[in-house]
């Protein structure tokens, strides 16, 4: 009995020993395997997870589409090579660190401290801007030259029509799954926040960008065998390019001009006289699309914000009066310097004396136009203003475009107005409205387009900022054809011609005589609106017109805002310089 018990105990101990040996072997194998290929709960190796973490931490290019000008010149998207620090276990020796510190213009000790602290790759700006165009110099282990896609050019600009991008999780949550990739858009993806970036956002969203990883283990120890890995989405169609109507060279020159001539607030708009395409649109003050300060308002595009027009609105009154037959170009008026009603007086002390309608526009006589305003009805003035593109938005628009959604190219555009709906219109309101005061508001874009309308015998066009969207391979994704607003002209060709003749007389014998020495023969109309801001009297100065007179190529509007009352008419000087730049560009072309 005792022998049998001992035998059973021996068998149990033997089995237990066998299981212990198997368990020990298994644990040993797992330990060896973990050292060679440590697994994670997600089924990836720790090495793979480390790489994945780096991929999530550094993006070279979001894959967002870009803008080009009418000739294909890039407006967004420039490769910038930057030295990028990766988390490593040991920093390089002192000499290598010193050389790197010189490249990034940073004290070695500061660089060393920064490098020790990073938990994800960190790109550094270079001291030499040439090195950002191409890699210059060798870098120590743990640092790589990487090509980042810089969306906007360095510094501030007056291209607020372009807009800017920002992270907007609220917008991302409302987006449909990417049609091409079939994946949800990442919540941190930047989307358009204003300008064309916003209005064209549906086309610009990419299907995947370019990311980089660096081989380090979970303790940030360098793994040279893995090295740098770049992952990109290879697609023949994306990202797209959006071709604008802008001429980059002219836009840049006019931005410089606005600085040189010290235009602190205002706008410059240049339209192609043939069909109203936007060639250049400058807004002051400038903004920095890479560093937006929403509170300062510089990102707002003043070229599409409505402002009191002053005497440029006299073109509308002249058109309404001629169309309705309440006057004729040769009718004589008498200006004594005072209208004797509603507190209206002429800018010229003592008045102009006997003066014709044509001379009245050339000299911008308030008495002539106050009288015309009272001859007209509210409906006649409002109808004519609308026919000339005022009091409503005019930028390129479609109720339904590629998928049923509406599309309005020009962001922030205001409609402006002629009469305030809450005001009872009487003779005084009509007279003051005729001078472009009271409740009248016009945008610089509308003012320039008014000139285009007259050049086309009263046919109203819808200004474009974008002509087409191109796939990556150059094929066309979408087109935005030039549009007319309304099937036919409301202002007759005869009236349009008469107004153009009057605008020419503004230059030859009126308030624009200083422009007779311009490179082109010009025609135009000045305007000054009086406003009160913070209890201070200020002027909004305008000049609109076209050139050359013999074969019009461009229509231009200049607005200089918040000038001291009685100050020199800066807008007229800017208009002349703008036209000279356009003439020079045409000669070179």
UniProtKB/TrEMBL annotation:
<dbReference type="InterPro" id="IPR001460">
    <property type="entry name" value="PCN-bd_Tpept"/>
</dbReference>
<dbReference type="InterPro" id="IPR036138">
    <property type="entry name" value="PBP_dimer_sf"/>
</dbReference>
<dbReference type="Pfam" id="PF03717">
    <property type="entry name" value="PBP_dimer"/>
</dbReference>
<dbReference type="GO" id="GO:0071555">
    <property type="term" value="P:cell wall organization"/>
</dbReference>
<dbReference type="InterPro" id="IPR005311">
    <property type="entry name" value="PBP_dimer"/>
</dbReference>
<dbReference type="GO" id="GO:0005886">
    <property type="term" value="C:plasma membrane"/>
</dbReference>
<dbReference type="InterPro" id="IPR050515">
    <property type="entry name" value="Beta-lactam/transpept"/>
</dbReference>
<comment type="similarity">
    <text>Belongs to the transpeptidase family.</text>
</comment>
<dbReference type="InterPro" id="IPR012338">
    <property type="entry name" value="Beta-lactam/transpept-like"/>
</dbReference>
<protein>
    <submittedName>
        <fullName>Penicillin-binding protein 4B</fullName>
    </submittedName>
</protein>
<feature type="domain" description="Penicillin-binding protein dimerisation">
    <location>
        <begin position="62"/>
        <end position="212"/>
    </location>
</feature>
<dbReference type="GO" id="GO:0071972">
    <property type="term" value="F:peptidoglycan L,D-transpeptidase activity"/>
</dbReference>
<dbReference type="GO" id="GO:0008658">
    <property type="term" value="F:penicillin binding"/>
</dbReference>
<keyword id="KW-0472">Membrane</keyword>
<feature type="domain" description="Penicillin-binding protein transpeptidase">
    <location>
        <begin position="266"/>
        <end position="580"/>
    </location>
</feature>
<dbReference type="Pfam" id="PF00905">
    <property type="entry name" value="Transpeptidase"/>
</dbReference>
């Amino acid at each position: 009995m005792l022998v049998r018990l001992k035998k059973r105990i021996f068998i149990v101990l033997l089995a237990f020993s066998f299981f212990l040996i198997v368990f020990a072997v298994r644990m040993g194998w797992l330990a060896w395997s973990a050292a060679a290929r440590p697994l994670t709960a997600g089924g990836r190796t720790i090495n793979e997870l480390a790489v994945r973490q780096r991929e999530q931490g550094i993006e070279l290019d979001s894959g967002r589409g870009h803008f080009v000008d009418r000739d294909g010149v890039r407006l967004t998207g420039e490769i910038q090579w930057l030295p990028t620090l990766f988390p490593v276990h040991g920093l390089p020796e002192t000499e290598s660190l010193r050389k790197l510190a010189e490249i990034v213009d940073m004290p070695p000790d500061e660089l060393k401290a920064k490098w020790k602290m990073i938990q994800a790759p960190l790109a550094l700006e270079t001291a030499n801007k040439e090195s950002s165009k191409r890699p210059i110099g060798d870098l120590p282990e743990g640092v790589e030259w990487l090509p980042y896609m810089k969306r906007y050019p360095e510094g501030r600009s007056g291209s607020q029509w372009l807009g800017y991008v920002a992270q907007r999780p609220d917008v991302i949550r409302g987006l449909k799954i990417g049609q091409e990739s079939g994946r949800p858009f990442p919540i941190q993806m930047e989307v358009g926040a204003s300008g064309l970036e916003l209005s064209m956002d549906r086309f610009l969203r990419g299907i995947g960008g370019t990311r980089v990883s660096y081989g380090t283990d979970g303790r940030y120890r360098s793994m040279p065998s893995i090295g740098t890995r770049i992952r990109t989405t290879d697609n023949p169609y994306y990202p797209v390019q959006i071709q604008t109507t802008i001429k980059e060279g002219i836009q840049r020159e006019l931005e410089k001009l606005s600085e040189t001539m010290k235009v602190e607030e205002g706008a410059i708009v240049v339209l192609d006289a043939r069909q109203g395409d936007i060639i250049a649109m400058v807004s002051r003050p400038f903004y920095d699309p890479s560093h937006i300060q929403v509170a300062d308002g510089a990102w707002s595009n003043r070229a599409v914000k409505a402002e009191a027009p002053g005497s440029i609105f006299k073109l509308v009154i002249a058109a309404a009066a001629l169309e309705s037959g309440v006057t004729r170009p040769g009718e004589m008026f008498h200006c004594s310097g005072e209208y004797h009603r509603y507190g209206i007086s002429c800018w010229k002390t003592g008045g102009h004396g006997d003066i014709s309608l044509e001379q009245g526009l050339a000299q911008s006589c308030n008495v002539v136009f106050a009288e015309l305003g009272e001859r007209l009805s509210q409906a006649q003035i409002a109808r004519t203003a609308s026919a000339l593109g005022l009091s409503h938005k005019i930028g390129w628009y479609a109720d339904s475009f590629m998928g049923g959604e509406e599309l309005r190219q020009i962001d922030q555009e205001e409609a402006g107005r002629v009469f305030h709906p809450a005001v009872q219109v009487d003779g005084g309101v009509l007279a003051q409205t005729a001078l472009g005061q009271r409740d009248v508001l016009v945008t610089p874009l509308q003012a320039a387009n008014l000139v285009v309308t007259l050049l086309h015998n009263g046919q109203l066009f819808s200004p474009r900022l974008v002509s087409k969207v191109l796939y990556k391979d150059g094929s066309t994704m979408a087109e935005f054809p030039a549009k007319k607003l309304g099937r036919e002209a409301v202002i007759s060709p005869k009236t349009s011609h008469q107004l153009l003749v009057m605008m020419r007389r503004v230059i030859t014998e009126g308030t624009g005589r200083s422009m007779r020495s311009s490179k082109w023969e010009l025609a135009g109309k000045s305007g000054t609106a009086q406003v009160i801001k913070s209890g201070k009297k200020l002027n909004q100065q305008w000049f609109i017109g076209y050139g050359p007179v013999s074969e019009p190529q461009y229509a231009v509007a200049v607005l200089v805002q918040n000038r001291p009352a009685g100050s020199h008419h800066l807008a007229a000087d800017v208009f002349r310089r703008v036209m000279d730049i356009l003439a020079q560009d045409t000669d070179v072309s």
